[in-house]
Amino acid sequence: MAHYAIGDLQGCYDQLCALLERIGFQHGRDTLWLTGDLVNRGPKSLECLQFAMRHPDSVQTVLGNHDLHLLAIAYGAAKHKKQDTLHTVLNHPDFPKMRDWLRAQPFLLDNGTHLMVHAGLLPQWSCADARAHAAELAQALRGKAAGAFFADMYGDRPNAWHDDLRGTERLRLLCNVFTRMRVLTLNNELNFDFKANYANMPDTRRAWFDAPDRRHRDRTIVFGHWSALGLRDENGVLALDTGALWGGRLTAADLSDHRIFSVAGLPGGDWRVSTRKATH
Predict the structure, then answer these.
(1) Domain boundaries in the chain?
(2) H-type helices in 106-228, by residue range?
(3) CA-to-CA distance for 158 and 189, rounded, in angstroms?
(4) Which CATH superfamily includes the segment(s) 3-278?
(5) Record's family (predicted)?
């Protein structure tokens, strides 16, 4: 039995199938974690979502920002953007079931040695803190006030964690940490203006995992979201979004020994090329 984690799919279903064949994955024997962003921008969001739903005993996912965007559209809190590729999901007759399934997914998975989120964790959070905050955020999606949550979800403020945050501001910050965060200021404030590669980070910013005195070092933190960062396996973090959507690679890691497997991403190096081909 093997336990794998795979980086952001974003509709790259054919690449997922190729990667599962590459690692010899078998449902009923092996298990799989997905780092979130199952959907959007790639050509087969529907198939990626259906795959995860079809295999509840062997596949688990956390929610990513694109998954939340799909839910926000469903609740009338966001509009379908020009670059989105969500129509096949939104127009599917079983979409209400898919919507409710997505709402029930967690923001964090923890197996005792590895903890997975979509984007990252604040350095001042312990693993116990992170689990509690993830459960709090998940409850907001699953409750009767989900529509209100999505209506207030978007925004970059507040950008600093305080234990006394309450209500909408608290939930928005939690959501941004788990699904959008890449870099922090030197005061551990969230900053969303840098999305480029690690080597070009300005001196006034640092990756969330480079902050000193991280309190969650008793787990290896597995995450995706930051495709420009690429594969990273050091200092207690395992980054797995290697840009499959952009013509990079789709990457899997065996969590027992961190062996890495990958397959080619979407052809042409640009998700829009594959999308145009798929719709003509």
Answers:
(1) 3-278
(2) 127-142, 146-151, 167-179
(3) 9
(4) Metallo-dependent phosphatases (3.60.21.10)
(5) Belongs to the Ap4A hydrolase family.
How buried is residue 112: exposed, middle or buried, by Cβ count under 10 Å (0-12/13-18/19+)? exposed
Measured between alpha carbons, how far is 205 from 184 in angstroms, rounded to an integer?
Answer: 6
Structural element, H or E, at residue 114: strand 114-116
Phi/psi zone of residue 64: left (φ > 0), alpha (ψ -120 to 50 degrees), beta? beta
Q: pLDDT class for 280, splitting at 50, 70, 90?
A: very low
List, in order, residues 6 or more apart from 280 with CB less than 8 Å away.
none
How far apart, in whole angstroms, are the C-alpha atoms of residue 262 and residue 1?
Answer: 19
Residue 232 token pair: 């990273």
62's tokens: 């956390």
